[in-house]
Amino acid sequence: MVSFSSMMVFIPMVMIFCGVWGFITYNKHMLNSLLSLEFMMLGVFWLMSSQLTLVGSEIYFSLFFLTLAACEGSLGLTMLILVVRSHGNDVFKSFNLLEC
């Protein structure tokens, strides 16, 4: 039977893999890419917090990581709002790199 500690490593790895797969496959809209990045960050946070708990190390490092992930999410949503206001949609094909 599978132990609890191996499941705490396996499930976050599957989450990270699914996030990478979603980021690579569904890259038509900017919102899909941002959601895939946040799902990967959630998997990394879960893996890191479970491993730091098993080691007995400081849990403050995982809280710092969670704070940075929340800041990354808010910056991504801000960029999404700016892109939708300037271009009208979030489809990557409609962006012109030469346009300011």
UniProtKB/TrEMBL annotation:
Reaction catalysed by this enzyme: a ubiquinone + NADH + 5 H(+)(in) = a ubiquinol + NAD(+) + 4 H(+)(out)
Annotated Gene Ontology cellular component terms: mitochondrial inner membrane; NADH dehydrogenase complex
Main location: mitochondrion
EC number: 7.1.1.2
Annotated Pfam families: Oxidored_q2 (PF00420)
Record key words, sorted: Electron transport, Membrane, Mitochondrion, Mitochondrion inner membrane, NAD, Respiratory chain, Translocase, Transmembrane, Transmembrane helix, Transport, Ubiquinone
Transmembrane regions listed in the UniProt entry: 6-24, 31-48, 60-84
Highest taxon of source: Eukaryota
GO MF term (any one): NADH dehydrogenase (ubiquinone) activity
Gene3D superfamilies (UniProt xref): 1.10.287.3510
Subcellular location field: Mitochondrion inner membrane; Mitochondrion membrane
Coiled-coil intervals: none
Top-level EC class as recorded in UniProt: translocase
BP GO terms, sorted: ATP synthesis coupled electron transport
Lipid bilayer topology: Multi-pass membrane protein
Record's function text: Core subunit of the mitochondrial membrane respiratory chain NADH dehydrogenase (Complex I) which catalyzes electron transfer from NADH through the respiratory chain, using ubiquinone as an electron acceptor.
The family this protein is said to belong to: Belongs to the complex I subunit 4L family.
Name of protein: NADH-ubiquinone oxidoreductase chain 4L
